[in-house]
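Bench notes, afternoon.
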Amino acid sequence: MSAVEQDGDRSLGQLMAQATTEMSALVHDEIALAKAELRQDAKRAGIGGGAITAAGILALFALPVLSFAAAYGIHNLGLGLAWSFLIVGGAYLLIAAVLGLFAIAKFKKVKPPQRSISSAKQTAAVLQGVKPHPRPASEPRPIGVTVTRSSV
């Protein structure tokens, strides 16, 4: 008996159970695939982060060497050694000042997330008029208590 012939003999409950099982398996497989992809991307990101850290450390170690080379290069042009180091140090201070001004200009352009704030305000305005549960017009009575009307 083939699978198609068996499906004709199954009840609706059995078919729903099989569909639910297959859907669950599909979702689990999709989650496993996503985990594998994320694991691979995390590994790549970790290796990339390690490489950029190593590059930064090597550049940091190279900076003093290049500074000394620049100072001694200026000294070989005929200036005194102290003046050569002062020029290199001044150049670094000038570069630091330009970068600082650039950073300040960029920080001044940072503004709060206007679209998110307006969206949150709109959502809050909509939710203020909504009651959490529909209630009858009269006050709810405790169970077991009867209310009688008295004519006044």
